[in-house]
Amino acid sequence: MEKIVIKGGKALNGTVTASGAKNAVLPIIAASIVGSGTSIIKNVPHLEDVTTMNELLIQMGVDLTINDTTNIEICADHITNPKAPYEIVKTMRASILALGPLLTKYGRAEVSLPGGCAIGARPVDIHLKGLEAMGAEIHVENGYIIAKADRLKGCQYYMDKVTVTGTENLLIAATLAEGETILENCATEPEVVDLTKYLLNMGAKIEGIGTSVLKITGVDKLYGCEHVVIPDRIEIGTFLVAAAATGGKITVNKVVPHDLESVLIKLRESGAEITVTEDSVSLNMHGERPKPVNINTAPHPAFPTDMQAQFCSLNAIASGYSIVTENLFENRFMHINELVRMGADITVSHNQAVIHGVERLNGAPTTATDLRASASLVIAGLVAEGISEIYDIHFIDRGYEVIEEKLSQLGADIKRVSY
Ligand code: EPZ
């Protein structure tokens, strides 16, 4: 077992480089299933979730090799087992992204129904209703989604809620469907745009990229191609918040600043001096204590839910009151109890956390409960007085590439310890 040990109180300073985006590379690897021939995906982050997605495809019969540290080569021409088994799906919900590709390319798919996760029920009804609207025959048997279709047919489908993976599953399915599909109320996150660009490069016919209405004209065949994954805006935002919380001064390279505009606006509101170039973001807090900022999570381009926990840590030591409202997930405040154990003054009622900033947090042993909650505990440990230990850090490794190495690069006193 491993834990992260942090000696808090040091301002972060220096330069770090962003990794590829987890939530872009996962749908892109799944989408490679629909291509004939080989795809080369570049700037792939070293994350547990990526390893899991790779394993999911390999057990289907996909030829997948990691041809150097950040590139993978994928050829899905010889899939023998169009199935996503429970053992894998239970460790990573994004496995549901195999459903659309398998169904549209092979006419059948068996995908374990993802259960809920720590942050919420996370249903997939919109995914299934959309595929049924395209003519798929879908039923659930022994906890598995069994889907069949001779060939999916284009349709018009309005998604009741904005769902990133729902949009991605249906978009991929529509690329090989017969005729035209119009998807409405689509997610417009940068990761959806990156997937769309990959599909276009494979030969897909898609209009409306980056908007909430996607028009897809089905084709008979798609081809593997090269694709460079976009930088991870949530990893970047996490490092910027850590620098703001510790009063530091950092630059993050390999960034698409526009992708995290709503986060930069909130960091400026907290008192940070932000400078952007074409591919970097610099933050300077001038050693000042952050000002409190109110947060309202919503689909892109609004403030991302995946940055909510990190801002709770920032607000926990800010000079005043703030309100953080979580509008997407019903249980995404599990980091609050752990922050309170470190001396934070926060009360949660329904989907709102009222935070009264305190002068300082105290180091303590804490336990991670989900990916972004673990990031908020790291930030809290960096600002707290004394030693903090974070247990169950496998959550962190799912979404952050060697977080302790990158933070050490910025001067943090942080290490991973076996116990
Ligand atoms: C994606 O999850 C991200 N994951 C999540 O990132 C992110 O928090 C989320 O989008 C919101 O931005 C990936 O891209 C792999 P949802 P997604 O479950 O699309 C409702 C992280 O930390 N809904 O679709 O799977 C649902 O209840 C992770 O990196 C339905 O009702 O999110 C929720 O309220 C966590 N029916 C909302 O939509 C459906 O069929 C979005 O949740 C699907 C979704």
Provide a descriptive summary of the structure in words.
The protein starts with a strand and ends with a strand. Helix content is 32%, strand content 27%. The radius of gyration is 21 Å and the shape is elongated. It is built from 14 helices and 26 strands. Strand 22 and strand 23 form a beta hairpin. The protein is α/β, with parallel strands linked by helices and 419 residues long. Strands 24-25-1-26 form a 4-stranded mixed β-sheet, covered by helices on one side. The chain has a 4-stranded mixed β-sheet with strand order 2-17-19-18. Residues 22-23, 26, 94, 120, 122-127, 161, 163-166, 305-306, 328, 371-372, 399 line the site of ligand EPZ.
Overall form: elongated
The structure class reads alpha/beta
Percent helix: 25-40%
Given as residue ranges, the uncertain stretches (5+ residues, pLDDT < 50) are none
Total helical segments: 14
Give every kind of bound small molecule, once each.
ligand EPZ
Biggest sheet strand order reads 24-25-1-26
The count of DSSP E runs of length 2 or more, i.e. the number of strands, is: 26
**Mean pLDDT, rounded to whole units?**
97
Q: How much of the polypeptide forms β-strand, as a percent range?
A: 25-35%
Q: What does the radius of gyration come to?
A: 21 Å
The largest sheet, given as strand count, sense and whether it forms a barrel, is:
4 strands, mixed
For the termini, the CA-CA separation is 6 Å
